[in-house]
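Fold these two proteins, one after the other.
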Amino acid sequence: MKYLNKFFLFPALALGIIMTSCSKNFLDVNDDPNRVTESNVTPELIFPAAAVGVGARQASGDFGFLNNWMGYYAPNGDFAPSLQEQTYSLDFSFGDALWQRHYNVLFDLYQVKTKSLVEGGDTVLAAASMILSAKLFQELVDLYGNIPYSQAFQSKQYPNPTFDKAQDIYNSLLMSLDTAVNYMSTLTGSKSFASVDVVNGGDQTMWIKFANTLRLRLLIRQSEVPGFDPTAEIAKIQATGGVLGAGESANVNPGYVNDVDKQNPYYANYGYTPTGNKATTSVNANNYILGILSSSGDPRIGRFFQPAGSGYVGGTYGDKQSDIPIGSQSSYFGPGLIGDDLDGGAGASQDQWIIPSFESMFLYAEAVARGWIAGDAKAAYESAVTESFVWLGVPNAEAEAADYLTGSDIAIWNNAASTSDKIKLIVYQKYIALTGIDPLESYSDQRRLHFLPDNGYISANPAKVSNTLPLRLLYPQSEYTTNSANVLAEGTIDPFGTKLFWEP
């Protein structure tokens, strides 16, 4: 288990230094400044890479299966598809890389937090790492349920960490965000925080809004849990400045450039190589989302995807390979996602989103519609849709959004009669806005509310084992190999029957 083994790096290095010093001549009093040691690997050195890692996880191809499952992307006819993915025949290898890579970034964030607090008292840097950790831990819970949490990364004391209950982790994450917001609000960090903060440039107010957005996302996810009462947590959000709003995305950018291993992560995966070739030749647009965008006259279609010939062409997920258009005849990813310069490389230097502004605004709109937050739900909803147009760079975005909100049947507020219908309208429009941007959020919303109006996103493969999406992933093989007693204690998991605690 990589996230356990990495803990031994610093103690091993420290031991090596001690043993080496025993053989030194007593006159050799020089230290090698280029040698990595426990003392010179500071939290300020670790944090930028860890923050970049969070952005890379958001853009990762590890979420490719969710882009396919949710009807955003589909394999083209050039390559044989993954039958395991298309038939929902999950095994213990499925999602293994996602699990390990998330925990690897979480390990780095844990090191930032502990070293900041123990060694330097840098509470602001610790808070930033706690906020980013909350995002990744929620994502793991939303995919796997119970996971190692309270004992993770403490390999000396807990070489085989137990699994915490998913509900307990959610509760702990809310408390962790309390602490992080307090650190950001009332205490100060090192003078170098602004220089190492590749997310918000040292803006503590923006970090607090980011934390509040994550808090709201944790609450919204539990909306269908019987007896759930978000009142106290909503009050904390309102008392500390609210959530991310228009123009307030949580992004990361350490200085991406159009060079090998230095590009914006999303551009590197779905844009173009530094030499101008397509970064991926195996996946393109899905007919499901293209149908929604084209039938509603949504101008965002040209920001999500590039036309192929005279129109937009996609693949039907799970269809026979011979019936799917090849990549050169299919719609590739558009300028709203990979940059207006397309293959010219400008998108390679753009910010990598962690949570875009409009996603936060849709969460806020749902909270208002539910009566959790006082306000005008219609206005909040329409502001979120408008922000999606702006964020994607639609020309004349506000005017186009206004036309869409009044002229497209799937977007008109008054077409939704009941509160439940209005909530599903908000989430459906969030689903459209998140095309290729955050498929895990859409996957979670579908499991929570079953809001999609039809099942056209479901795989067309006749060998599929279910006509519905899995409710969760199986624990990965790496966990059974390195932490077998604890993962086996979780019992037998049925990806179609073992629900997460927040799934109705």
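Now the second one:
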Amino acid sequence: MDDHSFARFAADATGIRLLQVRSRITGASPALLGMAGDRAAQVLLARLLREHRPGDAVLSEEAPDDPARLHADRVWIIDPLDGTREFGEPPRDDWAVHVALWEKNRLTAGAIALPARALVLSTGEHPPAPPTRAGPVKMLVSRTRPPPFAEQLADILGARVVRQGSAGAKTADVLLGAAGLYLQAGGQHEWDSAAPAAVAQARGFHTSRLDGSPLTYNHPDPLLPDLLICRTELASRVLTACALINYQCL
């Protein structure tokens, strides 16, 4: 299967495993359930990569970093369970599986699985952007680490701030038309945004840092603290507003 199909297959299979973990482990604390999900997802996704893409390097949130990836032509950047906290709080559905391929200095394939929503979005699909919704723009931010300037930015944009878990879940809501933009400042790494950015780019949405510079991957330090994913017609307004309020990435 090609890389787009593999990313979708791997993300979907890992999501199914996570649903099994969630249904099997009952009565556990959110922390213990989240740990079980992280572990099971990493084991399966790592095995699928070894079986189907044995020559490629991997950067994962849940595995030790191998510096050999810095010299590799193809690197899979994965977050086996994005939104561990939300996974540990059934019946929340704002958690995801991220699978992305970085190749020759750019993202070339990826998928976001949202198992609790029975949904997978991948770079192999290119549906048109949904129509703009009437009313104030919904601006999605982190449930636990919202940008300190979120409300100020929302006032400038005439937007409504909504806190939500998982970068993948927030990105999916933007791509499907449930929100206008997703903005993050602080606390993220490459595995948090690689798959969301890959899928958003494939669908023609805007992706960038908050200063407008491109998102880049496979660096020695995988910290990538801020990003913007939004409808293209909103990008200039949002970036200008960010510059006006002199945002800080904490």
